[in-house]
Amino acid sequence: MENSGGIQASLSGRYATALFELARDSKTLATVEASLGTVRDALAESVDFKALTTSPLIARKDAAKSVAAVAKLLELDATTASFLGVLAENRRLAQLPAIIKSFRALAANFRGETSAEVVSAHPLTAAQVTELKQQLRTRIGRDVSVDLAVDPSLLGGLVVKIGSQMIDSSIKTRLNTLAHAMKG
After folding, report:
1. Checking CA distances to 55, which of 39, 78, 180, 183 falls within 20 to 30 Å?
2. Which H helix or E strand runs over 130?
3. CATH number, domain 113-183
4. pLDDT tens digit string along 2-33?
């Protein structure tokens, strides 16, 4: 299997690759990807869960118990719950955001899609996401899976990153460009 961007070169990439291969071989790729999306959302929304994953003060066994409880609460599939336990035992929970990102890239590549990181000033509606995917598909020539994030400091517009290509149509960037041009 080819890993574009050297995903396997990093620690998080090796964990993501192992989880991806396990999910692919057991034909639970969509289920694991959905569970990882739930974990990603929980990390963004819960300060306590984020602290659990990043604190070096929590003992391995306590972290493993806590992660198992969170997995049950979030109704994660067995593979993802077990994987989180392995991360806790190996003190690698802090790598979770990077692992999720790498896993999503591997899954998108497996499906023949290109993955794009999209940052908007406000949450996008389902219709806007569908339209954005269509526009990106037209531009790139492949299906695109999007990883959405919100950054209110953009004021408006979008920042889309596909691989090394970046499309920045944010109002923040336009205002900065205008201010720079006015300075002379």
Report:
1. 78
2. helix 126-140
3. 3.30.2320.30
4. 444 566 678 899 999 999 999 999 999 999 99
